[in-house]
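[agent] plan:
  1. take the single chain provided in the ticket
  2. run structure prediction with default settings
  3. attach structure tokens to the ticket
  4. add a short note for the reviewer (M.T.)
[agent] executing step 1
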Amino acid sequence: TPSRAKMRYFANREIALEKDILQDRLYSYAKWCAARQGYRFGQGADGDIQYMTQQSIEKMFGNTLPKRPSARHEAMLVQAEASLSLLVATMIRGSREIKGYAASHDNVIGEETMGYARSLICPLFPIC
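[agent] step 2 finished; step 3 output follows
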């Protein structure tokens, strides 16, 4: 029979896998929000979005995930998606409002637009 330490290890791996799936859902949603308007994330902003989505899952679910997701859990994920949508829309707005940005960043929203958006919308649960 497996030791308690091994059982705990496998249980923690299962939680991490599920958190990775949820994080990927939010990250993919943010990329879709940009792509549907003809934009993509620059390298720095892409890393920031990945980190923000990972931290969002931690804020919403902590160290444990329920065996059976409830409507409340799905509602939290939908709220996170709405927050990400607002972030991306504000980044796109920033790309148009920051002097010279659009001309030098062909349909890319990056760290500069991330800073612009965060200054306007944060704090905004669960992303910032």
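[agent] step 4 note for reviewer: The mean pLDDT is 88.
[agent] ticket updated
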